[in-house]
Automatic annotation (TrEMBL):
Residues 1-21 form the signal peptide. Keywords: Membrane, Signal, Transmembrane, Transmembrane helix. This is Magnesium transporter NIPA. SUPFAM superfamilies: Multidrug resistance efflux transporter EmrE (SSF103481). Residues 280-314 are annotated as: Disordered. PANTHER family: CONSERVED INTEGRAL MEMBRANE ALANINE VALINE AND LEUCINE RICH PROTEIN-RELATED. It comes from the Bacteria. The chain crosses the membrane at residues 52-70, 76-94, 106-124, 136-157, 164-186, 198-214, 226-250, 256-276. InterPro entries: EmrE-like. NCBIfam families: DMT_1 (NF038012). Coiled coil: none annotated.
Amino acid sequence: MELTVPAVVLAALGACCYAAAARLQHSAVRATGSGETLKLASLLGLLRDRRWLLGLSLLVGGTVLHAVAVAIGPLIVVQPVGVLALVLAAVLDARQSGRSLTPQRLAPALTATLGMGAFVVLAAGNTGSALPPLTAVTDALLISTGLLAVLVLLGALSAGGRRCLALGVAGGVAYGLISVLIRLVAQRFQLSGEIDPLALLGILAALLIGGWCVQQAYASGPPHMVVACLTVVDPLVAVGMGVGLLGEAAGTDPGIAALELVCAAVALAGVTLIALRDNENSAPPGGPGPGAPDAERVFAAAHATSPLTDRTEP
C-alpha cells in the first residue's frame, strides 16, 4: 500500500536537513585550506570539526527520512520533492550573508517550487503498479557505475567550477542510485520477505562514493552549485530509473505525461536560475573566485569561531 502523502512530507523534511547540512559542511571543508582537492589528512581532520559533524548528523537524518519516504512512496513522486533543498539553501545564504530576499531572488525559488509541486500532484495520481524485472538491481548498478566513472574522470581532469560541477553531478548520480536501490529492496521485501544482498552492497558503495564526490565538490566551488547538482541530477536519475526499470509510469495517459514533463522543465528552469544567480554572487566583483585557496583561507580564519556565519559576500 502506497503512503504517498506521508512520503512527500518525509521527503520535504529530508530536504530541509540536506540544505542545512550543505551549508555547514561546505563551511567546514573550505576552512581546511586544502584548495580544490580535499586530501585524506584534511578529510580525517574534518572528523574533529563540530560544524562538519553537525552537518553529517543532519545529512544522516535527512538520508533516513528520505529512505523511509522512497520505501513507502513511489520514486517519481518522492524524488522531485528534493528540489526544496536548493530553495532552502538559497534562502539560508541570503539570510546569513545579509542580502534581502528581493523579488528577483524569490522568483527562481518560487518557479522551482511551483513546478515541483505541480509535478508531484500530477505524478501522485498516475503512478503505475508494474513489478520491476529481476535484473533491475544489476541494470541500475551497471548504468550508474558507467556514469560515475566518466564523471569522476572529468572531475579529476578539471579545475574550479568545472570540477565542482562534474563531482557534484557524480554525487547526484550516486544518491539517485541509492533511492532506486532502497525502493527495490523495499519492494522485494514486501513481496517475498527477502533482502537482496547485492542491493545492500550497492547502497553502501554509493553512500561512500557519493559522499566523497560531494565533499570534493565542496572544496572546488560554492555550496549552491553542489546542492543544485544534487537536486537536479538525483531526481533525474531516480525518476528515470523508476520509469525505465521499475515501471512506475506504466499506464500513464500521454497527455498527463506531457504535462509532467512541462512541470519538470519549469522546476529545472527555476533550479538552474537559482544556481546561476548564487554562483555569480559567490565572489565579490573583481575579487578572487570560489576556487581561490588563499582567499578561502582568509575567509575561513575570519569565520572559524561560528558555524553559522559562513558568508558568501565580504
